[in-house]
Batch of 2 targets.
Target 1
Amino acid sequence: MLKFSVSLLAGAAMVAAFPPSIIKAPTEPVPDTVDFSVPQGNWMPSRTSPDVPSAANVKLAARATGEKVSNSNVARFDNSNIQDGVGDGVDSYTLYLGSGSTSAGWPDKSRWVSFENMFNKYKPQMFAACGNQDSRIPNTDGPEVGAIWDGIQMTSAATGVDHRFVLAILMQESHGCVRVNTTTGGVRNPGLMQDHNGVGSCNDNHTVQKPCPSATIYQMIREGTAGTSSGDGLANCINESGHGDVSDFYRGARIYNSGSVSSTGNLQSNIATHCYASDIAK
């Protein structure tokens, strides 16, 4: 469970910004509260399985690669504004319980931090993640971090998924390690997004690529967001939630992790990582 920085909430200033293509790693140490273990990806049903209704009995959108967010209330295709939030986030953790709605205490989108601040805060983790997961794996370097930035921006523009949400899921799944291990906790989950049986990976079957090509980094991010031939990405998870408000992001995160929202409507219920949606919102 990621505990260091607030993915989406406002707060006090943290580390200074520097360009995403910088060659050297930052000098700020990574707090010892960071858990670099890799979650067991997502458990969503395969595309050949019958659609699984959400708690609100909303059917999944047609499963196909190239997914897009269909509800204009939550879709965002123009992600060119990178200073699109409030504050920088704080080094704290809030456990959110319940439905993911603002009435249940979950943060409204107006309280999310900006993409630029969020990305800059996560850079120390990106530069350290691979070595902390496995000391034999080379850490993500400056150009690869820059490719993560570019990949998120291109993917968000194509899918309508807010770039901050894509980054939050990416950090939850891999901490930004471009050579993250492919996990197989029930479903094969490769790459930065630990997506559903995708193709993009720079560490599959113990074959590690250094450097990790920019095209592969983009592919990993796109497969996690726009879906694969085997399973849904973030866009369809948001579509399945179907509420048309900020709760679709938190519910969509839970669907991405476990395949559905519990019939209770509570995001801490169900299989897989119980605090997954809360970790994204924190």
Target 2
Amino acid sequence: MKKALAQNPNLLRTLLGLSVTLILLLSYAVYGATVSPSYYLYTTDANETNHEIGEPTRIYQESTNTTTWAWDVPANGSNLTWIHLSAVDLSAQSTVKLSNSAGLFSHRLLGVESDQAFSCAEQCQKNTTHEVDSPDGGTVVIHALTSFDPARRNNGTVYGADIQEATVKARELVEYEHSPSMLSIQVTETGERVTTPQIILVTVNEEFDSIAVFSVDAATEFLWALAAVVGCFSMVLIPSFTVYFAAKAKENKDRLKLEQSEEHVKASLEE
């Protein structure tokens, strides 16, 4: 490489020209992708319903010495996404069940924000009944989803040739009818109980709200892309420049030594 640059200075100019050309082409490609995107961002409007819980059906089974409390709560199945159930003031050795004949996805870590490694798509189980035991009593919480697909809730992104096509795709992702939507809650406590546990049930329905083309600051993105590309090619050009200038410096040094030697020989002959 060193000899090639020293013997052929045009090689460096060729490398520099190719690098500048590639920088311009790649920068234009990034710029074109930012100013004419085909991705659209849609938003959903979440409506929470805090259900009024009526009087339960109480069943005491003397054979097992247990008291069972049961509620049937009708929920709106249109675009139903989340179900949050809390059972409060439970006695020790209690069991809480949440049932829906259409099936729900749930897991003990669902809704726990501190666990970043949890993935409902991989770990949630779809069952018609989800059951949680409470050995010490107190409060039991069950979070459930009608689908683990994140596109159905909390906004999302779609690809489309135009906004009309993107709108159709977004609505198809969001709109859903969970049927049957009746939720059954059952609490089983040890002993003959007369105090009804407190039940809190919240459901979330999310509807399609709006859609807009994905946009960024094209000028800023262009500058960042240009800087990134320049930085990458600098890693190639800097060593080439270093070798080239080192070769030129050595060439000048050798020429200077040669001139000094010639002058010394000439001076010796004249003497």
